[in-house]
Amino acid sequence: MTVIFAPLFPHAEQLDVGVTYINQHVMALDTSIKDAAYSYELAIEYLSENRFNANNFKSIRSELNLLFNWAWEVKRISIADIDRVQLRKFVDFCNQPPIELITHASYPFFVEDKQDGTLAPNPKWRPFVLRSEGRYVRKTSTLKAQLSLLSGFFLFLSDMEYVDKNPAAVLLRRLNVNNTHVVESSDGEKALSDVQWKRVWQHVNDLANTQPEKHQRTRLLFALLYLLYPRVSEIAARPGYTPMMSSFIRHRSGHWVFKIPRSKGGKSRLIPCPDELMQCLKAYRQYLGLADFPAPDEQVPLFVRHRAGTHGRETGILNAQLGIEAIRDIVRMIFDNVADSHNGTVQEAHELSELRDFSVHSLRHTGITTSIAAGTPLQVVMKNAGHADLSTLSVYISTDIQQQAEATVPRAL
Description:
InterPro entries: DNA_brk_join_enz (IPR011010), Integrase-like_cat_sf (IPR013762), Integrase_catalytic (IPR002104), Integrase_recombinase_N (IPR010998), Tyrosine_recombinase_XerCD (IPR050090)
Pfam families: Phage_integrase
Distance between the termini: 59 Å
Number of helices: 15
Subcellular location: Cytoplasm
Keywords: DNA integration, DNA recombination, DNA-binding
Protein name: Phage integrase
């Protein structure tokens, strides 16, 4: 059977808009391969994070292009189904690719129509290049570089809770590679301790009260991440989705809910909003000069930018939703500020310094852990978190027994 691969990822400057034939191809695959469109969105997000380093971007794009083509066209499986065994098969495939995927010169991914500027796959392009006569052979260094780049991608997917393991890191370790750039996600401590969270929330409130023009937004962000524990990709702008204030909906029951239209597994969900979160939303909206609560058709971004965008489709636009990197930067700044504070005992100072090792995902983990500890039924936590089954919650239940035992009911900010 002849294997045909196609360029699936656009140039850096086109990530925000995509390429028509690629978008159509991915949406067609989404009907037969689980999460094809969602995993592609995640890959675009990861590439966007690396778009400003040209060499890294091109290397990562090439490896993701190989991986996605192999998974979809050769194995007909989802990216989420790639474990250590499957990735080993992928490596074997790359070591001995079909002859129809090999060329003797490098060609661009795309050709441009000179009349309308649209892009099409370059018919001369092939993913593997053999520059001399003879059999295609990959050096060990090439294999190690490939696994290192893919390890970074699987780590990102783990942070997004799309996969549980990092198969590329496992294969790298078996190759005895001493690569300091490869970081595996662990099943160790991910949630903030009670002391860490209280100091973080206190700092956020202090900033919101003293610098409301900047940090009313920060308070709503942290309250949302802690109380509803969404994935960061679910509250940030991404290709095809921009969260609005109208994501907050008054349900017919009278309760306010937060709507996430599509996420992992292509599922949507409604998350009930505690009163504490609605008070933070009300304070932020009042500062923006808006009504206390959003109207159903309101088109105001959930987190309004303080400065206009500098690249992509939103260059020069101020009234736009924050992206993943901007949200991560805000959380990182707060964690670093609290970690740098020297108030309290030596033991507390050490505990706060550990915040430098936490990420925005840690707030989701903290929210789930404390919600379980506060007595929220596991079935409810599972639905709120967007997990497919209760077994996924096991890591949260066993994270910190002392923290769970000491948690109070009801749970409050």
